[in-house]
Automatic annotation (TrEMBL):
A Pfam match: Lactamase_B_2
Lineage: superkingdom: Bacteria
Lineage: Bacteria, Pseudomonadati, Pseudomonadota, Betaproteobacteria, Burkholderiales
Protein source organism: Rhodoferax saidenbachensis
Protein name: L-ascorbate metabolism protein UlaG (Beta-lactamase superfamily)
InterPro entries reported in the protein's UniProt record: Metallo-B-lactamas, RibonucZ/Hydroxyglut_hydro
Domain Metallo-beta-lactamase: 121-315
Length: 366
């Protein structure tokens, strides 16, 4: 065999080995499951399903360029805190008590929050593992601890999941909460992941946009967002969403990941104005705007919703973008001042009680 034939054979063996290794890795439970049968058939009837996948309207067309991404990547922004982030530790004893009437929220870092609406406890996109990754030995690590360790979470009535990316859907967190009977409200297709993780079928509620469910008198509405999905690739194999939580007396909205679009006005028209809006303000870039709005767009979204108060989320916990660590909240406050939007910026783990005085502190500065 000539030398060049040996080289080609060796290269082919390497390619095959890499392919097999990649396939084996993607079979790990953390990558979730695949929709089949009745689940897939239901997905295919969704108005959002086009050409074998879910799509935004109009479809998202990436304008990312390698040169622009490399320019941003090489910036000199300080993307992690230079001091210990002040975290308000929560007490497991408080979760042992029934949720009180009223409306309150605890921001838990990144997109995770605990919301109590008229006596019902709801978590948004809870991620309490060390890393937002399919592996706990590699991937974006937390920049601060969770205000309560995963094993101490209990008595959570419901979880709403905006989409299946690793910084929003965490296998270990889901499995722990499922053991105590928590119900999970997810977009179409996401249930396949939970099913693979042994979550009982009666605790999984897959929903299309504008569908509603009820738990203990609180209505959970799956509402539109503008994003993308995929646990193993950007294949839009599951449906992304935002969520409206409407109790008899109070209401809250959670945006999930989204670009700015007309869906905020549509939500207000169909469902009314939420009192509290937890809206994404971080992890953005000039080439991401169609699916990751920036702080100024988040303020526009709050105005469209007509929300009374904004609680900014999706920043501070994982280094996922090119901007400086504290930039999202600083830009949010500046934009809100000019738009006359009320913003609450609690520390991680600090309680915000709607209707009660709350004094913002610049805890995000050294």
């Amino acid at each position: 065999m000539t030398r060049w034939k040996k080289r080609i054979k060796g290269l082919l063996l390497v390619v095959v080995a890499l392919g097999v290794t990649t396939w084996l890795v993607l079979q790990l439970p953390s990558f979730g499951g695949m929709a089949q049968g009745a689940r897939l058939a239901r997905m295919q009837t969704s108005p959002q399903w086009h050409n074998g996948r879910f799509e935004n309207t109009p479809p998202y067309v990436s304008d990312m360029s390698i040169l622009l991404e490399l320019h941003d990547l090489m910036g000199d922004e300080v993307r992690a805190p230079t001091f210990e982030v002040p975290v308000q530790k929560m007490r497991t004893e408080d979760l042992a008590l029934p949720a009180a009437p009223g409306l309150r929220a605890w921001w838990l870092g990144h997109a995770s929050a605990l919301i109590e609406v008229d006596g019902v406890r709801i978590l948004t996109d809870p991620v309490f593992s060390k890393r937002a990754s399919p592996f706990q030995f590699a991937g974006p690590a937390r920049l601060h601890p969770a205000p309560l360790p995963l094993e101490q979470w209990q008595n959570i009535d419901a979880v709403v999941i905006s989409h299946d990316h690793f910084d929003h859907l965490d296998m270990a967190t889901i499995q722990h909460l499922a053991q105590s009977g928590t119900h999970f409200y997810v977009g179409l297709g996401v249930g396949a992941h939970l099913e693979r993780w042994q979550v009982p079928a009666e605790q999984i509620h897959e929903m299309d946009w504008w569908e509603q469910a009820n738990i203990k008198g609180v209505t959970i509405v799956c509402t539109p967002a503008r994003h993308y999905s995929g646990r193993t690739s950007m294949n839009n194999s599951t449906l992304w969403a935002s969520w409206m939580l409407k109790g008899p007396n109070h209401s809250a909205y959670y945006s999930g990941d989204t670009g700015y679009a007309e869906h905020f006005k549509a939500i207000r028209t169909k469902l009314g104005t939420p009192e509290l809006a937890l809206v994404k303000v971080g992890a953005y870039g000039d080439s991401w705007m169609d699916i990751h709005m920036n702080p100024e767009s988040a303020i526009e979204a709050v105005q469209d919703l007509g929300a009374t108060t904004l609680l900014p989320v999706h920043w501070a916990t994982f280094n996922l973008a090119y901007h400086a660590w504290a930039e999202p909240v600083q830009r949010t406050l500046a934009a809100a001042k000019g738009a006359d939007v009320q913003v609450a910026t609690p520390r991680v783990g600090e309680k915000f009680e709607f209707g009660q005085p709350f004094a913002n502190q610049a805890w995000y500065l050294p």
